[in-house]
Amino acid sequence: MTAGDSGDGRLVSGIAAGPGGAMTDEVGVITGDVTLATVPQDGGLARIEIQYTDADEWYTLTGSPVPVPPDGLAALHARVVARVESGGAAHA
């Protein structure tokens, strides 16, 4: 995983979703090569977005938004990346 800051505070990683993929609110499970973004929001929350790599559409990872934990946005992003890489219809 390589997380990059896109300049607006969002952390973005290109990864492969594990067997069973990641569950989205809009289209159900997505699989394969994906891009995951963790986006800070007001109120101590973060929105988790996912898309097929190089696609235009972003989807909401089911369970998002989530509270940013005390160890910060980068730690949250790393945990969500690990979940999606593990698959099993991963949620935020």
Structure description:
By secondary structure, the chain is α+β, with helices and mostly antiparallel strands. 15% of the residues lie in helices and 46% in strands. It contains 1 helix and 6 strands. Strands 1, 2, 3, 4, 5 and 6 form a 6-stranded antiparallel beta sheet that branches. Strand 4 (45-52) and strand 5 form a beta hairpin. It starts with a strand and ends in a 6-residue tail after the last helix. The model has no long low-confidence stretch (mean pLDDT 93).
Q: Secondary-structure map with pairings?
A:
Layout: E1 4-5, E2 11-24, E3 28-41, E4 45-52, E5 59-60, E6 66-67, H1 73-86
Antiparallel strand pairs: 1-2, 2-3, 3-4, 4-5, 4-6
Number of strands: 6
The structure class reads: alpha+beta
State the helical fraction.
Answer: 10-25%
Q: Strand fraction band?
A: over 45%
Spell out the helices and strands N to C: EEEEEEH
User: Separation of termini?
Assistant: 17 Å
Largest sheet: 6 strands, antiparallel
Kindly provide the radius of gyration, computed on alpha-carbon positions and rounded to a whole number of angstroms: 12 Å
- Shape, principal axes of CA atoms: globular
User: Whole-number average pLDDT?
Assistant: 93
Helices, by number, come to 1
Q: Which regions contain 5 or more consecutive residues with pLDDT less than 50?
A: none
